[in-house]
Write a structure and sequence with these properties.
Blueprint (H helix, E strand, L loop, with lengths): L1 H17 L4 E2 H7 L1 H4 L4 H17 L5 E4 L5 E4 L14 H13 L6 H13 L26 H10 L3 E5 L8 E13 L2 E8 L4 E6 L3 E7 L11 H11 L4 E10 L4 H6 L2 E6 L2 E9 L2 H6 L5 E5 L1 H16 L1
């Protein structure tokens, strides 16, 4: 129904913007299919008045004009609804270029590219390339998970969702009902931060562990959405970014460069192994499992036990 209303509003806006003279209710009803399908005049009148108010709330300036015969007509003059000129400096253009690259492997790639082309046509300086990033880094944020797009839309529209989720330590997925807040990319993986209704607590879900389809649920959020900074801190905390102690591991020589980059110290053991002291925060066990046989946890004992449990769960399928 939301899509049908959006299409109806778009058609009404195009009619009002495209006419050179005021159009009466009768003419608008004959021009828009959704109005023709209205069951009665009263139904059409209520629908039209709501749509007109919605367009005005969105910023469209709609004039009401009465002709010599006393008939009321409507139109939206282009000069009254013209957006101001778009001006972007080099840093703002670079930020838009980075955002466009996020969608390079998603279904929104064409829309992102088209948006940048429209900005160029609207006055983006010719000497500014929005795809050119200042510096030597080339951003690459993959979007492989099928759950990404429905979750992104659910976050935008503030709609609860349900999906099956398999924890790293579980053999089978479990159903979850979540109020989605935001998506974050961390170390090449996408995470969803939101309110888990089943557990009555804030949770973070890795998209690659969502199985099956993401289903939209009826109703509104039952909890207040925190600000963006808080959500990002939650994602970082659950993904292991915030460390409050240290762990000691053995790492195969020539492997695990992300771990080496985080290490406080590295000591060669010989026989193809090194010993590393690395920050230990929530989620480190899940990260270490990704390196498979190249990592052996020495201490603390609870981290070693968590890694072993995860490996056993993986082995069980």
């Amino acid at each position: 129904m939301a899509i049908a209303k959006a299409e109806r509003l778009m058609n009404l806006a195009l009619c009002l913007l495209g006419t050179r003279r005021p159009l009466s209710k009768r003419e608008l009803r004959e021009s828009i299919e959704a109005y023709l399908e209205a069951g009665s005049d009263d139904s059409f009148n209520r629908m039209f008045e709501r749509d007109k108010d919605d367009l005005r709330e969105l910023g469209l300036v709609i004039e009401t004009v009465e002709n010599l015969d006393g008939e009321v007509g409507y139109l939206a003059r282009r000069d009254s609804n013209r957006l101001p000129a778009i001006t972007l400096d080099a840093e703002e253009a670079a930020a838009l270029g980075l955002l466009a690259k996020v969608w390079q492997q998603a279904r929104l790639a064409g829309a992102a590219s088209g948006a940048l082309q429209k900005l160029r046509a609207a006055g983006l300086p010719e000497d500014v390339d929005p795809y050119e990033v200042h510096g030597a880094l080339e951003p690459h944020i993959p979007v492989h998970e099928a759950a990404f797009e429905p979750l992104m839309l659910a976050c935008r529209d503030r709609r609860p969702v349900s999906f099956d989720y398999r924890k790293a330590t579980a053999a089978r997925p479990e159903p979850r009902t979540v109020e989605p807040w935001a998506l974050e990319c961390w170390r090449g993986h996408w995470y969803l931060a939101g309110w888990d209704r089943d557990r009555g607590a804030e949770r973070v879900f890795r998209l690659s562990r969502i199985t099956g389809k993401v289903r939209t649920r009826a109703g509104k959020f039952t909890t207040e959405v925190p600000d963006v900074v808080t959500v990002r801190e939650t994602v970082a905390s659950w993904a292991g970014e915030n460390a409050d102690r240290s762990a000691r591991i053995r790492l195969r020589t020539g492997a695990g460069y992300p771990l080496r980059a985080k290490a406080a110290s590295v000591r060669e053991l010989g026989d193809g192994w090194d010993e590393l002291e690395i920050p230990y925060g929530h989620g480190l066990d899940a990260w270490l499992v990704e390196f498979g046989p190249d990592v052996v946890v020495l201490e603390p004992a609870e981290l070693r036990a968590d890694v072993v449990d995860r490996l056993r769960a993986v082995a069980k399928g």
